[in-house]
Amino acid sequence: MADPQIIDTDAIASLRELNPGDNGEFLREIVGIYIEDTPKRIVEMRASLAAGDVASFTRAAHTIKGSSSNVGAVGLRAVAERLERISRTEGLSTVAPMIEDVEAEFARVAAELRRLSA
User: Fold this and answer.
1) pLDDT tens digits for 16-42?
2) How far apart, in whole angstroms, are the C-alpha atoms of residue 26 and residue 13?
3) CA distance 93 to 16
4) Quick check: helix, strand or coil at residue 65?
5) Phi/psi of residue 17, nearest 5 degrees
6) Which of 73, 106, 102 is nearest to 87 (CA)?
7) Domain boundaries, the chain
8) How many whole angstroms separate alpha carbon 92 and alpha carbon 51?
9) How many Å apart are CA 83 and CA 65, to the nearest integer?
10) Exposure string (b/e) for 32-59, b if CB count within 10 Å is 16 or more?
11) Smallest Cα–Cα separation from 78: which of 101, 49, 96, 95?
């Protein structure tokens, strides 16, 4: 059973139902893409922050929000949504500490998704 504060089990069940009878292969593929792509978006957020590029930062946070929602990563989705909103409305002056929150939450999410898709 997934930790409901990390992963929404309904989202995992929905992904499994998209390709029934495949022994979880589709879920493993989606999880693999998510685990591979999300660190790239985090790097993109850090680079955008360093460059003062609000649009790129906001886009990276939006991407993490959407992909996290797709795999049921509720906590990470919430942090990314907050980062997206703050960057849009207030700029980048206060977001740096929250990138560490994204990284920490992603580590929890990745471990739980690997366990669930094994």
Assistant:
1) 888 888 888 899 999 999 999 999 999
2) 12
3) 40
4) helix
5) -70, -20
6) 102
7) 24-117
8) 10
9) 9
10) eebbeebeebbebbbebbeeebbebbbb
11) 101
User: C-alpha 85: how far from its chain's center?
Assistant: 15
The angle formed by the CA atoms of residues 80, 31 and 111, to the nearest 5 degrees, is 75
| Topology classification of domain 24-117 | Four Helix Bundle (Hemerythrin (Met), subunit A) (1.20.120)
72 and 8 Cβ atoms separated by less than 8 Å: yes
Q: How many helices (H) and strands (E) does the chain have?
A: 5, 0
pLDDT > 90 fraction of the chain, expressed in percent and rounded: 77
Give the position of tokens 């703050």.
86
Q: How many residues does the chain have?
A: 118
36-84 per-position pLDDT tens digit: 999 999 999 999 999 999 999 999 999 999 999 999 999 999 999 999 9
Q: Give the model's pLDDT for residue 2.
A: 53
Residue with tokens 């660190």: 39
**Residue 29 DSSP class:** H
